């Protein structure tokens, strides 16, 4: 199968097929998607070795996450890999294990092997990310740094929805169990939840920083109980599940005695008992969008950093871990 066969089947010139794979920003989106779909149906694959010699590109992308064991990341990774493959790219995935030193080391290591890097929920300081982004095309997910493209999931809106949901049930004292130090998501949640709590006339206690893990939730459980809050919003589903486990060890039943809300809408939260009320994050869409932005940056003349920013909507999924407070105030 050759590029001419694809062009004939798509009803376009050979050069259009070539641009659809190697310079997609020069082709209308509808045409590009039609060409790529026909190429996939016909089993056409570009000669990557020849293209690399011509363009100086590897057709490889880096994707760095903070904890690959966290169930938030696999849907994002799978979506990014699948979309990159359709566009003629491969994705190298690396895990920092929440270590900023490892994160910077991985970026520098991958820079020699890829055309650009997607950083998901990075922990590095903004100035470090900005400096590294000046050396290699970057796209950030859930982090905003001036001069770099970003895909942001609107967790602030989700946190506000969580506060409004609990206040609507009659909770007047809430707790927010935040995430790790340096987390953009945790900072967004804290600000938005604080504003929403003030608007709703409820008290909000913030407990942070905390490890973004199930164990982190277990450890934080006693401190939450000490606040006297009747409703809790956790940094993510893993922390929420850990909180529920920690509460259960102390005879506190969910949602009879305490309501709990997570963030992410992972499989773990859906399988937990009680099933977890949570803020659904569009992880698969974020993976595809980040790859698309990075490829646009890589294929733009000069390969300089882009400044596009995409915000993806979040929503509240109400399940079994929230209810009216057992002993409402007054």
Model description:
With 330 residues, the protein is an alpha/beta fold. Among the domains are: 1-46, 434 Repressor (Amino-terminal Domain) (Orthogonal Bundle), CATH 1.10.260.40; 155-281, Rossmann fold (3-Layer(aba) Sandwich). Helix content is 46%, strand content 17%. The chain is built from 13 helices and 12 strands. The chain has helices at 3-10, 14-22, 29-42, 48-55, 73-86, 100-110, 126-133, 155-169, 184-200, 214-227, 237-249, 267-271, 283-299; strands at 60-65, 90-95, 116-120, 138-141, 149-153, 173-177, 203-207, 231-234, 259-264, 277-280, 309-312, 315-317. The strands form 2 sheets. The protein has a 6-stranded parallel beta sheet, with helices on both faces. A 6-stranded mixed beta sheet has the order 7-6-8-9-10-12, with helices on both faces. Helix 1 (3-10) crosses helix 2 (14-22), helix 2 packs across helix 3 and helix 8 (155-169) packs parallel to helix 9 (184-200). The longest helix is centred in the middle third of the chain and has 17 residues, at 184-200. It is elongated, with a radius of gyration of 23 Å. Pfam families: LacI, Peripla_BP_3.
Write the layout of secondary structure elements.
Blueprint: H1 3-10, H2 14-22, H3 29-42, H4 48-55, E1 60-65, H5 73-86, E2 90-95, H6 100-110, E3 116-120, H7 126-133, E4 138-141, E5 149-153, H8 155-169, E6 173-177, H9 184-200, E7 203-207, H10 214-227, E8 231-234, H11 237-249, E9 259-264, H12 267-271, E10 277-280, H13 283-299, E11 309-312, E12 315-317
Parallel strand pairs: 1-2, 1-3, 3-4, 4-5, 5-11, 6-7, 6-8, 8-9, 9-10
Antiparallel strand pairs: 10-12
